[in-house]
Write a structure and sequence with these properties.
Layout (H helix, E strand, L loop, with lengths): L8 H5 L4 H14 L5 E2 L11 H12 L12 H15 L8 E4 L2 H12 L5 E6 L4 H8 L3 E6 L10 H7 L4 E7 L11 H13 L3 E5 L20 H6 E6 L12 E4 L2 H14 L5 H12 L1 H28 L13 E2 L10 H12 L1 E2 L1 E2 L9 E4 L4 H16 L4
Helix pairs in contact: 3-11, 4-11, 5-6, 5-10, 12-14
Bound molecules: pyridoxal-5'-phosphate.
Pyridoxal-5'-phosphate binds next to α5.
Amino acid sequence: MSTPPPLSTWARNLSPSPTLAVDAKAKALQAAGEDVCGFAAGEPDFDTPEHIKEACIAALRSGKTKYAPTPGIMPLREAIAAQYGADYGLKVTPAQVVVSPGGKFSCYLGVLATCSPGDEVIIPAPYWVSYPEMVKLAGATPKFVLCDDTTAFKLTPELLESVITPRTRLLILCSPSNPSGAVYTRSEMAAIIAVAVKHNLYILSDEMYEHLVYDDAKPTCVATLSPEAEARTLVVAGFSKTYSMTGWRIGTTVAPAPLAKAIAEMQSQMTSNVTTFAQYGALAALTEKEKTKAALATMLTAFDRRRKFLHAELNKIAGIRCLLAQGAFYLFPNISSFGLKDTEFCDRLLDAEKVAAVPGSAFGAEGYLRLSYATGDEIIAKGVERLARFCATLQR
Ligand SMILES: Cc1ncc(COP(=O)(O)O)c(C=O)c1O
């Protein structure tokens, strides 16, 4: 029997998601009876709020089981548009809104709508793991710019200028950031966006964690920075993190109408609409405001408590340096003083102490760990104690 032909270049060049891989390994150990402290998963440990589930069930029972318009049911697109007005004062029409099967797919469609083969895309590192692979799948080239803990993991206008070439087409930003938790101030963001506008770049602003901010940090909706910014920005967000709806697969894009139309047309050939009855659950998240606000407040209180605790405990460990991030649910401690590659650090940590963490190199920043605190307080306390014990066995 002859061997079948090789897989496509797309399939061969793709790196599978390292965060999902670490999480899968930790879950396998757990299934085998090990007491694992998992800091790897990027999802809230809370259930979806009841009123959202009930709205979905009611929709399912009432027969909302057929195809829906590709960019989303109109009431949901209207509610999303209205939310941008209420949150940021941004005037958005439903024609600018596309609801996609997960924020991940929203990002991918955004890249596909703006980039052609040969284009370059600037991605500040540490970055969310999927951006480079999406760019490669579009035939474009990711260009990384490292923003380490000396600049609080933030891109500066000067750094951005230094990596722009005539082929640069798109800048991808993520604030609050996965993996660093960094949140740009409005003026920091404005200075970066001014450079992107000057060079006529598209901007994909991943604002998936917009509502998960602490202390005095505020999210910036990049499309609100100037009319020029609005004309070239795709704002990606969604329901996964804010409303604890990761399994529902509902992401959103707000973009200038011609871009939104292009994105919806691509989606119409790839996946069609997001599960129809799930969209009614999402609608309840936006319309039953008081219930949603209460659920979000409960989650934020827990996340903030865990953030402060984990940050304080990490900085007590000799050899670890950790900034107090103000967004998302991640901390990104520097472990470079141990002189180990971060992948080796994580492998040994999991083997020796059953603590699952994702190495910074998975996010383009060697020498760090990404720790998610979207997990139980006891797991965090036990996990950081084990991490300290592990670090004490290493040379510095
Ligand atoms: C920065 C960022 N953007 C987008 C997504 C995608 O979210 P979704 O689960 O809606 O696909 C994630 C999820 O991990 C994320 O961390």
